[in-house]
Amino acid sequence: MDVFGGAPRFLAYPRPVIVQSGTDAVLKCQIGGDPRPAVIWERNNEKIDPQGRYRVFEDGNVYNLIISAVTIEDSGQYICKAKNCIGETYAAATLKVEGEAQEMELREENKPRFLIKPLSTRVGRGEDAVFSCKLWGNPKPEIVWEKDGRKLNDIFETTHFNVGCQDGGWFQLKIFKTRAPDGGVYTCKARNEFGEALAGAVLLVDAGPGHEEEGNRNDETITKSTKVKMFAVTEGKHAKFRCFVTGKPKPEIIWRKDGRLILSGRRYLLYEDREGYFTLKVLYCKQKDNGVYVCAASNTAGQTLSAVHLSVKEPPVRFKQPLIDLEVWERDLAVLECEVPEDSVPITWYLEDRRLQPGAKYGMEEWGTKRRLTIRDIGIDDDGIYLCEMPDGGRSIAEVAVKGTIMRKLPRKVDVLEGENAAFCVEVEKEEMDIHWYKDGIELRETHQTILKSFGRTHILVFVNTMPEDSGLVTFLVGRSKTSSQLRVKECILTVHQKVLETKRANAALLSWVPAPDSRKNPPSGYVLERQEVGTGSQEWVQCLTTDSATSVEILGDSVPCEADYRFRICSVNKYGKSNNVEFPKTVHLVPVARIQAPLQDALVPEGQDAAFSIELSASVIGTWFLNGTQLQEDERYSMRRSRTHQSLRIRGVRDTDNGAEITFIAYGIRDSAALYIQGTYSPLVKFSPLSEMDRNKFVEVGNPIVLYCELSDPTAPVHWYKNGVELQTIEGLHIQSEGTMRRIVIQSAEFSHSGVYCCDDDDVHFTVEVKAPPVTFADIQEKDLFQSVVEQEQLTLSCEVSRADGVVHWYKDGAEIQTSNNVTLQAESIKRSLTINSARISDTGTYTCRAGDSILSFKVNVREPPVMIVYPKEDVHLDRHVPEEIILSCELSRVNGVASWFKDGQKLQESENIKLKVEGPYRRLKILSSRVEDSGEYVCDANDDSIFFHLSITEPPVQILSPSQSQMELCQQTSERMVLSCEISRPNAVVRWYRDGLEVEENENLLLEVDGVYRRLIIPETTVKDSAEYVCDTGDDSMTYFVNIAEPPVRFIRPRKTASKVEKMRGETLILDCEVSRSNAKVTWKKNGEEVEDSRNITIFDDGVLRQLTIHSLTMEDAGEYTCDVVDDNMTFYITVKEPPVQIIGNSGIPEHHILVTGDDLVLECEVSRPNAIVNWLQNGKVLTASDRVKIDSHKYSTSFKTQREHISRPSSPPFSSPLWSAQGNASFVASMSTAVTKVRRSATMCAFVSKEQAKVRWLKDGQLLNENNIHISSEGNTHKLTINPLRLSDSGDYVCDINTDEMSFNVVFLKAGSLTLQCEVNKPKADVQWLKDGKEISPSRKYTIRAQGRERSLSIQQLLEEDAGEYSCESTDDKTSATVTVLFSKKMTPVVAEEYSEATLEVELNLDSGEVQWVRQGVLIHPCAKYSLKNKGQKRSLTIHKLAVSDRGTYSCESLHDRTQAQLTVQRECARPLTMETASFEVELSHPNVPGTWVRNGIQLKPTNHFRMSAKGQVHSLTIYNLSVEDTGTFVFCVENLKTSARLVVKEPPVTIFRKLQSQKFPDGSVVSIECELSRHNIDVKWIKDGVEVKPNKDLRIYAMGRKRFLQIMRCHVTDSGLYTCDAGDASTSCTVERELVVLQGLEDLDIQEDQNAVFVCEVSVEDVPGEWFKNGEQINPTSTIKIRQEGTKHFLLMCNVRAEDSGEIMFVARNAESVAHLKVKELPVSIVKPLQDKTVLEKSRVVLDCAVSNPRCSIRWYKGSNVILPSEHFEISSEGCYRKLIIQQVVLDDEGQYSVQVGEYTCSATLTVEGKNLFYSVGLYGTFSTLPLFVIYFKLIRK
């Protein structure tokens, strides 16, 4: 019967599941069984009910457990149990919920921890003390050393100690020449971004021999010169002296009494309190304590002292006999006795401040006046001061000294603040005594917070960073002697208000807390969290972590050393100390992540004996043992033990029923199983004697014999030999032998084919034979090649030759095997083997061994440091400096420990008061504190292997110009004024030269050079225009430039000539306006009604010396108005009136016209008058005619007609092109008509009309008005009459009529908008055909040309006009033709521009076409684009911009197109030529009498008439007018006449300042010069320069100066600190700009080529700190995750990608502002290999077998084979992967499953043989993983024999 056939079995085991927090998790397994099993799920030995977040459902034989919305607490193991009536089985599934645990794991992995802590040490005074420790942390932690809670820099000078680090994580603190104050507790604090660690050590400084004698000195001479203070105290009271001393290094303090050194003892306490006072406390003063106490302080800088005289006053009532000091031995009896004044006086006994009570310890007696205290069994703690006190306060004092083992006892109590260190020191009589420290009865052990140290006879205990819980009784025990001290830790006011412990996630604790409400007064700087194991008996609290500002942390199970329940507490810390520890309310169970170190082993145990199973783990966890799926409990039969990482199970008295039982151990994340086999009680028939491992495994070299043997219990029993399952027979070279109980097989000469597994009697006894090649040996190498010496960073190659090409060698260094790495390459080519170190390091020095089997070859390698080279500077340096500057010469060496010497002119330099030699890392510096001329010379920095020269030249400082502060000034003056240029120089004896326009000036009558101490002046008494120039004051080292501009005085009009100010003229007359100016070179401007008048055909502007004339040749009505002649400083105005001339009849010859008519004819009389509005009367025989039915009188603008009508005349037929008027027969008529259109403005337009009679009288009219304009030209030639308009203006557009009385022809002048053009004409027949032509070529309709016919109107429209569309267009019919000309012209003319010097000017025109081309011309010279000129085209606009205008740029500029031209005047004004204001002020005084002379006075000075002041008197009114007002005109004006005065005050205010040109923001590189400037509306304005709200002043790196209206700020050498917002504040206005450092990449990203699972680190350094940056991968932004870290340190930006994979390859980019850097990451896949191959297995039929192997890459894919067939997953075969492990699980093995199984991983394969045994009557016994089938009776027989 197949008992296993229907039992439940797992067809597919549940796999580990990893999900994200908040998602759903599905655990599944596949279970078979008949009948169908019942399946349940358990967690923590509790069944899971399928409700709420848990759901269970079945899908065939697949069973699922679904957990909804998982949290961290859901992580853990889940047990799936299946059971039916035949059997049961179970399996565990692991669920891991990812959240913040990975971050905590990373923090725990990378936070600092001490591998080796610093050791306490004891040194003699003056010796050096060294503390060393070894740390680990990633990134490398920052180290801070402290002494007694204070940083070393705060108490020591930098030369007294040195902090260093070495490779391998070693850190060192060295204190030089220790002094007494150096003793104390030193702590090393290590910190990185993941946490911190702390370790402490004690330094004990011995005073040394003679120290006491040195301290004993006579202070009489000192106290005589020092003021001694007086202090009095009553006997029995305490005296306390405090002395406050500061200094660096920290002073050493010595207290003396009357010249004798005071040491700490029973009654003398010496200490430094928390306020920094050095204190001496004299307890229970006696009369012998009277004297002078001196506090002497000294350090290396000097010494000082302070003295006080103590007077001890006697009490009012004294003892008759006081107590006497005692000295007794330990365990003796001590008796103290005194005598009081009277019998009735009671007394009280005290031991210091503790009142004593009578009892077994103390006996108290009284008889008479005597009082006695007896101390029994006296001990060390009884050592002290005893007092006998009377009620009135009188005291008697005695010191009891207890002699014994303990020479120096503990103080009775020690008080410290929370967070301080508590130190205890005991001295015993002998060294190496067995001592113990206790606190509250518990023996102390050394931890990171408890320091225990012994120095010979001295023993020290230190509690580091004490907490209130550390309070208690501290006891020191040595033998039977002990001494105790009460430790009291006072709490700080800093507290933690609330605390919460949550366990939402499995195997983790979330701790949260809230600071106390009053913590604002003393806010915490951090928190300290500690843990304690519960239930183990340990009371030790261990610090978990520290945090700065977080108020919650998560503690993971992997951060604890062993599985246990833990409680936590927290305290807050700040600079004042630590708060009380606050304990969290409950405990939490935490389990570290463990791995199997030594798995379970199958056990073969005789029945009745005990079976033992054990497993070794990597961490201490609590596990559960199972027997066939049933959890075991501790009882009489099962014993379970756990000792940290070792777990064991003992089953007492195993029974036959236990045979084949499965023993399983399950812990957090761990599962392992083994089998229990029972040896039977029946004796087998035949038994093989057991063989040793050596006998069963044979390794034979080729050619050697092979002998295999076994021994039987029955000599007659036959056996058969098999090799790899095939029976062997005796053949040549192979012999099978049998001798008694021995059975042998002998192979004469081994070959490789003889390797295999040999079995005796069907695998009862088996042998493994491996035939191997002969051993590999090394070829001889010369002795010199075995010793290699290379320079650091050079390549090192060690090579040798082996005897066989297939020989395998291993390389070792100092005993450790060497593996291939980035720096190490191992190569094998044929018989050559080599090891190459690409870049040797000092640490590579050592012994290298190449091992091939038993052959060894050793190499000695010495790696030398490279020669010290000078990295910077590379070339010799030449320096020029001035006296007395500080000079630093610096060299950077290639090594930090390199030695360099300094030489000057060949002589080696030593340090002196003025020369300092500095060593800072790799830098060697020579500093000359105050340079002198004699310090000039050649300096050499010599590093033995390299040197660099510094050529130093020191000269006297240059002569500087101190005032004015700016380097340039601009001065404007008028001629005839005195001019003084002055400079203040730095040295009065300096030589100064003056230059004018580059030439040195010489003193003459009109140019004086003056020297006045430090002042140098150039004086021109009376300036002229020729004195305008650039003047320079040059000292040789500095210069000052003056731009002097001497301007002419204002131009004035001298007198008007001929023309009055009011002029009346008739239209058509000539007008001449002229005036005379004060200077012939004065420029005047003529204006009409405020607009400038230009030269034209009708206007002429004439200059002749001082004469200025304007002529209008033919006046029109429009010429009337106000004309002004303007010379900037003055003007003259003319008022012109133009009148119409008298009405005249035009064309009247004076001869009467005679008309002869036929009765019935119409009489038409017509005349033309000179004005259209003239009134005309018609007279007949002197009688005025009036209009009637018969008489018609008409008036048409310029013409009037008289007509008498009798009858009508019929119309004849019209010509091809018709006119709107009909002509009478016999009268002139138009033959043709045309309509002309022009685009925009053109140079000219001509209209042409053809009449039927040559003598026809023609009149031209526009808009009904007779034409009479200057640009109208009328001509006649035969029958052709033309009207030409030249030049054509925009005002010329409109309707034109050619009138011949009897007929008229119309013309239309159109100015077209840009882009299109329409030409129109009219034919006499609506259906007439016409043809349009351009320049004689026919035009066809298209997108560009549109031809329309509407009635008699014909039109041609041209779209999108271009320059090439200009030309002659005509419209032709069969009989006639009309034409028009199209021209491209300017639609907007150029206008005059006035601009200021140094600014920009833009001239602009507008064309009618977008594509029109123009040329810009100045004074006949074509202008081309350059830095001075910018030419722009935008649509129809064309512009010319002139940059940085100069006066020479003024003039006439013209713009010319193909058909047109326009021009305008550019005027450039200088700043100094502009007056401050153009306003005028007038004062008037009216007197009672006319013609009385008076005087005008301003500020006491009489005024005279000038161009500035004009005075007039008209009758009784006197007036004063002040022109061109300036601020200087402010004052009091007085008018005086005879004895009368009247006054008024004039206040002239300058106009508010405006900003013409604003500041422009700038970016700068380091060290560059930045200049910002702005321009104001006035030059005489004081401004303030402000940076970020703070006013800045000029210094050597910052220049502030002005040039005219411009204000400049110049930064000479820009640094980061110069960045900011700069503002120029001019009072009424201000302007700002930003100056910021240009961001550049200093260190770009570097390409990385790494393997999978390594970390990729990218570093980019930019030039500016605290600039945010972004990281991108293949264009997508990178955000921080659990595997990607982004951080910034100053200017450096870091990107860390942990455990990269191949898909992480790509382009990495860093971007900060406008700077970026790119690198490429290339990730190579891990090489795939088989780390642990498959193993052969033999199993029973129907059992379950697991074939497993381990690969190097957990992500690689593999393929399983049986023979040559690929194995696919099925119910029979299950394929699983767990990390690097690959498993093939075969369920219910059958005989057909036997064979060779192999696995392929990339190019690697490995195979194993599976042997399946059928079930028979033999019992299966497991020995070391193999099975033997032994007959039962053989085993029984063996047992009997034993």
TrEMBL record:
Domain Ig-like residue range list: 8-98, 112-199, 220-306, 315-401, 684-760, 774-862, 866-955, 957-1033, 1049-1137, 1141-1308, 1316-1383, 1413-1467, 1551-1640, 1727-1818
Pfam family, one: I-set
GO CC annotation: Golgi apparatus; perinuclear region of cytoplasm
Top-level division of the source organism's lineage: Eukaryota
SUPFAM superfamilies per the UniProt record, alphabetical: Fibronectin type III, Immunoglobulin
Keywords: Cytoplasm, Disulfide bond, Golgi apparatus, Immunoglobulin domain, Membrane, Phosphoprotein, Repeat, Transmembrane, Transmembrane helix
SMART domains: IG (SM00409), IGc2 (SM00408), IGv (SM00406)
InterPro entries: FN3_dom, FN3_sf, Ig-like_dom, Ig-like_dom_sf, Ig-like_fold, Ig_I-set, Ig_sub, Ig_sub2
Function of the protein: Core component of the 3M complex, a complex required to regulate microtubule dynamics and genome integrity. It is unclear how the 3M complex regulates microtubules, it could act by controlling the level of a microtubule stabilizer. Acts as a regulator of the Cul7-RING(FBXW8) ubiquitin-protein ligase, playing a critical role in the ubiquitin ligase pathway that regulates Golgi morphogenesis and dendrite patterning in brain. Required to localize CUL7 to the Golgi apparatus in neurons.
PANTHER family to which the protein is assigned, alphabetical: OBSCURIN LIKE CYTOSKELETAL ADAPTOR 1, SI:DKEY-31G6.6
Subunit-structure text: Component of the 3M complex, composed of core components CUL7, CCDC8 and OBSL1. Interacts with CCDC8. Interacts with CUL7; the interaction is direct. Interacts with FBXW8. Interacts (via N-terminal Ig-like domain) with TTN/titin (via C-terminal Ig-like domain); the interaction is direct.
Protein name listed in UniProt: Obscurin-like protein 1
